[in-house]
């Protein structure tokens, strides 16, 4: 059973007189435990698509199923619930909470979104911080660590609730090449360890090499689909 | 909950200057209001105490209609022996009344053998009067603090106008109920300080002398002043007395007596009310200032943290929880300011207390001179 099934998904933005067709009837499927990339130039609809998959926005038409649930028409509270249970997020600007330490940022979803018992919480948080190689910095605040380190913390935060799916919208856009590769590799490694599906978008062709499947977006349509790395294990 | 608090406190610490400024504003407001309430409250209570304890009593009982025509001090509206008995019985049935004092009030002529003027007099039983209005002796500014038979306490303005001193002989002439006139010599026993309110500028003589001047056979009483054990039971006790006394009807079938609390008798009640209303509106203003300044800071915080709100919302934090994060933050800010304000305010009031507010007494005198 596919993790994501999109059928003829469209999204049209209307602002005043102007209507923008950001997505034009996309159909695709994504399997569990895969490492997927959406590539396309700026304005091609990557963010729009990831927002739909992440239940942050609803499609104008078409149906979108994520993890067996129809997410095309979720309310505010039920979509928040759904995200909290099923989806992890990684952002272009890292978006760690500045008043929380590395440890607390990773712990946040377990405390505030789910209600995980203290001991289990501690184990999970520490092991994930360790997996992304940030255990020495766990008590630092976000403004005391580098961009690459922040994104590694964000990866740990996205995975701490054991979601079925992690969405990363241009996670490497604010990082230099070397750091970008490192973050992609960590995501890949975490996908292998946890079996969580990762979907990331990028406008940078150079970082997509690790993806098992690449969808190319152009003007809100899927212009191509390729599988460069086979199953990704070199 | 604990963690919402932790995040709230960290966010407050994040904008130290703003938090400090807002908390200071609240602090200053709270201090101001506390001191104001304390000073105005003590002023009010002191004024009320002065009035009730120095001449008015906590409550008064009259024959129906007496208070309305109190300016003429009508002898025809006195209570006779039977009526006084009924009132005394009612007083004994209501617990919480510490003392009562019977007074006969009448108007007469006051002569120093050179000039003559009008005078309003109270005939009282001295022990009862002093137990009912214990500050009365303090109003006697010259002479012994006591009312003796054959002596008169002269109100200070009258004494000044008529140029009489303690020890002087004077004559009081009064018209009794059936229109005949009678006079009696008195020695000036003391000079009485004036007080605001009905009866605040009256002279005092002994009850027996009053009955003699008025040529009364039995005791006739114009008013009975009462003192309660606990002033805060005023409304309850006046209600009970009223209930009992309202069953006593006069010939027209209307209640024979009327019970008035000090509030109905003293013009200072309106000032006291004004103080109460001012205190209330200052409290309301404080609350408004606190709420508006907190709201202001919180609205700023929301705009500054749109991204953070977006992030935690995306992660799946429920809208309710995000809202409570901000509410707790604003609440903590308010509590912080109010707490510091209370500490400072209470210490300020304490300091004012131990430094003895002679200032209050000054105001009291000032008010008397109007
Ligand atoms: N909230 C919005 N309102 C109106 N137009 C939007 C909005 N978000 C995106 N768009 C438009 O939709 C198109 C796709 O945008 P986006 O999904 O952000 O592309 P990408 O992430 O690939 O750069 C763009 O033309 C953009 O201007
Ligand atoms: Mg984008």
What is the topology, as strand order, of the major beta sheet of chain A?
6-7-8-3-9-10
Low-pLDDT stretches of chain A:
230-234
Structural class of chain B: alpha+beta
Shape of chain A: globular
Domain count of chain A: 1
Biggest sheet details of chain A? 6 strands, mixed
Strand line-up of the largest beta sheet of chain B: 2-3-8-5-7-6
* Quaternary: heterodimer
- Helicity of chain A, in percent? 25-40%
Q: How many E-type strands of chain B?
A: 10
CATH architecture name of chain A: 3-Layer(aba) Sandwich
Strand and helix order of chain B: HHEHEEHHEEHEEEHEHEHHHHH
Share in β-strands of chain A: 25-35%
Radius of gyration of chain B: 30 Å
At a glance:
Chain A has a single domain (4-226), classed as Rossmann fold. Helix content of chain A is 32%, strand content 28%.
3D structure, described in words:
The complex is a heterodimer of chains A (234) and B (370). With 234 residues, chain A is of the alpha/beta class. Chain A has one domain: Rossmann fold (3-Layer(aba) Sandwich). Chain A has helices spanning 46-53, 76-86, 102-113, 118-131, 147-159, 177-194, and strands at residues 4-15, 18-30, 35-39, 61-66, 69-70, 87-90, 165-169, 197-202, 213-218, 221-226. Chain A has a 6-stranded mixed sheet with strand order 6-7-8-3-9-10, with helices on both faces. Chain A starts with a strand and ends in an 8-residue tail after the last strand. By secondary structure, chain B is of the alpha+beta class. Chain B has 2 domains: 2-49 and 270-367, no CATH class; 65-255, no CATH class. Chain B has a 6-stranded mixed beta barrel with strand order 2-3-8-5-7-6. In chain B, helix 1 (2-14) packs across helix 12 (319-354) and helix 2 (16-56) crosses helix 12 (319-354). Classes of the chains: A alpha/beta (234), B alpha+beta (370). The interface between A and B is medium-sized, with 26 and 19 residues. Residues 13, 15, 20, 22, 40, 42-48 of chain A line the site of adenosine-5'-diphosphate. Adenosine-5'-diphosphate (ADP) binds next to strand 1, strand 2 and helix 1 of chain A.
